[in-house]
Each structure stands twice: as C-alpha cells, then as structure tokens.
Design brief:
The complex is a heterodimer of chains A (about 325) and B (about 375). Chain A is mainly alpha-helical and about 325 residues long. Chain A has one domain: ABC transporter involved in vitamin B12 uptake, BtuC (Orthogonal Bundle), CATH 1.10.3470. Helices cover about 70% and strands about 0% of the residues of chain A. Chain A has helices at about 1-30, 40-55, 60-85, 90-115, 140-145, 150-170, 170-180, 185-190, 195-220, 230-240, 245-265, 275-295. In chain A, helix 10 crosses helix 11. With about 375 residues, chain B is mainly alpha-helical. Chain B has a domain at about 75-320: ABC transporter involved in vitamin B12 uptake, BtuC, CATH 1.10.3470. Chain B is built from 16 helices and no strands. Chain B has helices spanning about 5-10, 10-35, 45-55, 70-95, 105-120, 125-155, 160-180, 200-205, 215-230, 235-245, 245-250, 255-280, 295-305, 310-330, 340-350, 355-365. Chain B starts with a helix and ends with a helix. The chains are: A mainly alpha (about 325), B mainly alpha (about 375). Chains A and B meet through helix 4, helix 10 and helix 12 of A and helix 6, helix 7, helix 13, helix 15 and helix 16 of B.
Chain lengths: ~325, ~375
C-alpha cells in the first residue's frame, strides 16, 4: 500500500510541470495564438531556475526566488513570440519552432559562458520533500497529498483554480476567450484584440517558464540539453486532451504524469513489465493523435486559433 | 539613395530574393553581437567558415604546413546532404499549403527501416541490398508522412500537431528498435554489412579520409525529382494550386484532399531518404538518439530560406550544413558550438519576420510616392 501512495505522490510531482505549462498554453490558444514554443520557453525557465538556484543555495527562500526568475525569463522571451505573431502577423508555427531552437542554442551557450561546460553546475539543495504534520494524518488523501511532497504541487493546483476563475469569471477572461473565437466581435465592442493577445502570450510565457523551473528544481540537479525532453510538447498534448479547459487539463496532466511514473515502476509491476520503456515515453503522444481524431469535427478548439487578427478583413 | 536602388528594393520580385539574404545577414549579425557580448573573438566565425566549407586553414598561411585540407569539404557535404533532403521535404508540403514539422520523425523512421533491412539480409550482394536499404528508408519516411496527410484529409486534424506528436513516437520507436536488434548495445547496433553501406574508399580518398559517401547521388536525384514533379507534371500544378488557394482549386475541380495526402506522403519520402543517408552513409550503424538532432528543424529553415523551391533548398541545405560543419571547429577554438544553433534560430526568426522586413523595404522603396 505504501508503494501505491508513493506512486500517487510521484504522479502529482511529475504532473506539476506539465500542468503549469499546459495552463499557459491554454491561455495562449484561447486568445487565438498557437504556441508550439512551450518546450523552448520551458527550457529558458529551467535553465534560469537551475542557474539562479546554484548561486542562491543556502537560503530558505532560494528555490522560490529561482522559480520566480525562471518565470520572468519565460515571460520575457514570450514577448518575442507575441511580437512576431501579433504585431508582424508572422506564421505562428514558424515563430514557435524558432523559439524552440533558440532555447537549445541559447541555454547551452550560456552554460558554457557562465559555467564553462555543456550544462549548469549541479545545485546541492533546492525544494525538499515535506510531510505536513497535521494534514498528513487525514485518511487516504493525507497519505499522498501531504506526505513526502514538494510545495510546487500546491502552487500548480492553486493555479488551476486561478486560471478557471480568470478565464470564466472575469471580463478579461471573457474577452480573451472571445478574441480566440471571434476577434472582430471583440474589436467592435471597443476592446483591444492586440492587447488581449499580447497578455495571453505573455501569461503562457510566464507559466511555461515557471513550469520549466519547477521541473528542474524538483526532478533534476542541473540543466542539460535533454532536461526538458519533450515535456513542453506533452503539455501541448494535455491542452488538446483537456479540450482547452482548466479542469480537464488537470486530469490530462495527471494522466500523462502517471504514464511517466508507470515507466519508473514498470519493472516491478507484473502487468507492465513486458512493455518496453519507450512505450510509456511515447504513450502521451500516441494518445493525443487518437484524441485529435476523436474530437475532430466537434469544434472543441478555439475557432480563430492560429489566425492573425486583421482589422480590415471580414 | 539613388532612385534605381529604391526601385530595386521596392520591387516585389526582388524582395523574394532580398528577404532571405537580409535574414541570413541579420542572423549572423545577431550571432556576432552575442559573441562580442560574451567577449569572444567573432573573427573566428569567419575563419571557421573558411576552414569548414573550403578547407582553408588561415592559421597555416605562411607556415610550411598545407593550408588546404580536402577533408573539410567532404565533411561539409556530409553535413549538408541530409539537410538538403529535409529541406526538400518541408518545401514539398509547404507548396501544397501544409506545414511538415515532422521531418524530424520521418528521418528517424527512414533510419529505422534502413537499419532493419540492412541487418536482416547480411548475405545479399551490394547491387540488391543497397537499393533495398534506400527504398526501405524512403518507405519509412513515406509512412510517417502518410499518417498526418490522411488524418488531415479525412478528419481535418491539423498536420502540425500530428507531426509534432509523431516526431516523438518516431524517436522512441527508433530507440526501442535499435536496442532490440540482435547484437545491439544500449547506444548502437552492430556495424551494417558492407553491401548496405553508401560509403566508398574512392570518395574518402579524394577528400583526404572524410566520410563523403554516394548519398550525394540520391540527393541529386531527389532535387531533380522535386523540380520535375513540381514544375512539369499535372500533379505538381494541382498541388501548387491547392497551396495557393484551396477554395479556388476546389472550385476548379481539383481534389484537395487527395493532394494533401500525396503532398504529405511524398514530403515524408524525402525526409526518410535523409535517414538512410545518416544511418548507412554518415554512420555505418544504427544509433540510439537521446534527443532530436534537428535535421528536420534545420530542414524547415533551409526550405524557408530557399523560398520552398528545389534549388533554394539546396542552397539552404548547404548554408545550414556549413553552420553544422563549423561547430567542432568553433568548439576547438574555445567558442561554444551552440553559437551556430543561435545563428540558425535567429535566421528563422528573421525569415518569420518577413512582413516586417518587407514593410521596411517598401518604405525605402517609397512605393506610394
């Protein structure tokens, strides 16, 4: 039974970066801008997080400061994507691809400049797994939700609630959703489509940066060129699988996190032992292709996603 | 500024050539600025290019050692060949209005099919096995291109998302297969039989022991096939018509869905061949790949810089092949090799910004006046 609770806790921990980044991707796509640069933005966040963490080791608030810096850098880089997609009306897919490549180049280049090697120097301490004194005594939930867990999990869960509130209960959220469905209608009521889309892209940058930093600080000890290994694209898959809605995205992220955990445990779990490890790695991607086919024609995605807004066009 | 210059840059036709060139120059400027900021000698970028592309080592000028080394030219071509093929792949789909971001995965499937065939028939003579290996590689890429094409046509699922997902499926599928083949270690397969190898002692000899291989013949055929299909056949005409205006093409009686499937499928074929070149030419064994090697993504840049034409993809492939070839030279001189990746991605960013560059050019050209 302890293995079972341990698995649930690890699932939560591994789902966290996927979830946070996917929420960012959701905001971006809802506003009408496709962001396939999530992977690269995570890379920027992860590199910054790992670097800052190395320099601020020893202070209790250090990991939080590292998270914040990763988040900021992700947000700053995403302005480039926003400028290209919204102001210059460039091809959004090309822009995202450029950001992904830019990330691999810049992060490793900076590692060489700062640390003189192909990766950041390992940090000795970052977030520690905590068992919360009273809460862990709660039957069932306490065993995996409040035992041996990183505080980043709670940040992610709170972000789900905030995202839901912003998206569905504020006028900003209403306009943001409308900008992705019918930008001309938004324009006609006097709201600024450009401004809305810029904010959405920057939100996605901030959250991807945060997701990347969370990933590096809880699952790794340093940033390398393979640290993110496709998590940004899994987040993108979670957005699609979660049908562009906060709560389903939470479930999708947990599900994809679970598939990574099953990989770790597969050798000891009889039924999964026969499957190759690569099966668990490719599982989220295969599932997403199937999901796309199943959802096709149902119009679940934002209608104007990927289309630059042109005032003059009707 | 003279009037003829203004007229030149303001002309839409000239802009098609000017914009990629400006993007490339700006990309290099970004690289140089970053190098200067990190207090590195940006001049090395140019000496490395001279050495990596033309084989001329400026350090040896005036010494008794040979200034020219043909091995670098051979290695430069070896780096360029797969990129020309992935460039053709991306360009082919783009002309039909489809964005093949999955060349990366198609390359891997090409590698996978080639290595399996190469290792499964060890006794066959070269005249039979080598064509089989090449066809197998093409087939691997073709299948991986057909899936997104079919899903696009049948279910209107966006090809970008499907190809991204298939890239990862391809990566893991390749790694699993390579590890499962008999005799494989955790990182590579056993050597392929000589009969499946594209390499040659002759080519290696004339380029001072480089890895140059017969794959260049496949590249030349592929470039010609691209040009011929696109410009000389009805299929190519229809394909371009769909890319130009889907609705108009449909109205003219062109089967849009059929063209979408075929464009993605053949696009995959080009990329699959790049996989064969890598596995049975550049290397002579199958490799486990920890992360993407950017052949597909560089192909996107090559195609975009080359205006999605056959000859443009060749030039683009050579440019990014050069940027790949200089990486070890830069690293040996104490400059992080990633500067080449930064320059490449800066070039895509500027190509993507072409609307911005265009409006600047138009302003200089003063079209309205």
């Amino acid at each position: 039974m302890d293995t079972f609770y341990g698995m649930l806790t690890l699932t939560l921990i591994y789902s966290t970066p996927i979830l946070v980044t996917a929420l960012g991707g959701m905001f971006c796509e809802k506003s009408g801008v496709v962001n396939i640069g999530l992977e690269g933005l995570m890379g920027f966040g992860a590199f910054t997080g790992a670097t800052v963490m190395y320099f601020v080791q020893g202070s209790a608030s250090g990991p939080y400061f590292a998270l914040l810096m990763g988040m900021l850098v992700g947000g700053i880089v995403s302005i480039l994507h926003a400028y290209m997609c919204i102001t210059l009306k460039s091809d959004q897919v090309i822009s995202g691809t450029a950001i992904n490549m830019f990330a691999t180049g810049v992060t490793i280049y900076m590692s060489q400049i700062i640390f003189g090697q192909q990766r950041t120097v390992a940090f000795n301490e970052s977030f520690t797994k905590t068992t919360y004194p009273l809460l862990s005594k709660i039957p069932f939930f306490g065993k995996f939700l409040f035992s041996n867990i990183y505080p980043t999990v709670f940040i992610a869960l709170i972000l789900v609630v905030i995202s839901w509130y912003v998206l569905y209960k504020t006028s900003f959220g209403l306009r943001l959703r409308a900008a992705g469905e019918n930008p001309h209608a938004v324009d006609s009521v006097g709201a600024n489509v450009t401004k809305i889309r810029y904010s959405a892209v920057i939100i996605s940058g901030l959250l991807s940066g945060l997701g990347g930093a969370m990933m590096i600080l809880t699952q790794d000890i340093q940033y390398t060129s393979v640290s993110i290994h496709g998590t940004g694209f899994i987040a993108m898959a979670a957005v699609i699988f979660g049908r562009w809605k906060p709560a389903p995205i939470l479930w999708a992220s947990l599900f994809f996190g679970l598939s990574q955990i099953l990989k770790i445990y597969s050798t000891s779990l009889g039924i999964f032992a026969a499957l190759p490890l690569e099966f668990f790695d490719s599982f989220p991607y295969i599932l997403t292709v199937i999901a796309l086919v199943v959802f096709s024609g149902k119009g679940v995605g934002p209608k104007s996603s990927g289309v630059p807004y042109d005032k003059g066009q009707r | 500024m003279s009037n003829s210059f203004r007229a030149y840059v303001g002309n839409e036709k000239h802009q098609k050539v000017l914009i990629p060139i400006i993007s490339i120059v700006l990309g290099f400027i970004v690289g140089i600025i970053i190098m200067l900021f990190s207090q590195l000698n940006a001049g090395y970028l140019f000496t490395a290019l001279l050495r990596g592309v033309f084989g001329i080592n400026t350090k040896f000028i005036g010494t008794s050692r040979s200034v020219f080394n043909a091995r670098y030219i051979g290695e430069f071509l070896v780096s360029s060949m797969p990129l020309i093929l992935t460039g053709l792949s991306v360009a082919f789909a783009y002309r039909c209005g489809l964005f093949n971001i999955g060349a990366e995965g198609q390359v891997m499937m090409g590698s996978l099919f080639s290595i399996v065939v190469a290792l499964s028939f060890p006794g066959l003579p070269k005249v039979i096995l080598l064509p089989m290996v090449v066809i197998a590689g093409a087939l691997g890429g073709t299948i991986w291109g057909f899936i997104p094409g079919l899903l696009k046509a049948k279910y209107n699922v966006h090809e970008v998302v499907v190809t991204i997902m298939l890239n990862y499926v391809g990566l893991y599928f390749l790694n699993w297969t390579v590890k499962s083949l008999p005799g494989s270690s955790l990182v590579r397969t056993v050597d392929i039989p000589d009969a499946a190898w594209l390499g040659s002692d002759f080519l290696s000899d004339i380029t001072n022991n480089s890895r140059l291989h017969w794959g260049f013949i496949i590249v030349i055929i592929a470039v010609y096939a691209f040009y011929y299909i696109m410009n000389k056949t009805t299929f190519g005409y229809e394909l371009r018509a769909v890319g130009f205006n889907k609705d108009a093409a449909k109205y003219a009686g062109i089967n849009v869905n059929k063209n979408a499937i075929l464009a993605m499928t053949l696009s995959g074929t080009f990329a699959g061949l790049a996989g064969t070149l890598l596995t049975c030419g550049t290397f002579n064994y199958g490799r486990v790949i920890p992360a993407f090697e950017n052949y597909g993504f560089n192909g996107i840049v090559a195609a975009l810089v080359g205006g999605n034409t056959a000859i443009g993809s060749v030039l683009g492939g050579l440019l990014f092949g050069a940027l790949q070839a200089i990486q070890p030279i830069m690293q040996a001189n104490g400059i992080p090799r990633e500067i080449a990746i930064i320059i490449t991605s800066a070039i895509i960013i500027f190509v993507a910004m072409q609307n911005g560059i265009k409006s600047v050019l138009n302003k200089i050209g003063n079209k309205e006046a």
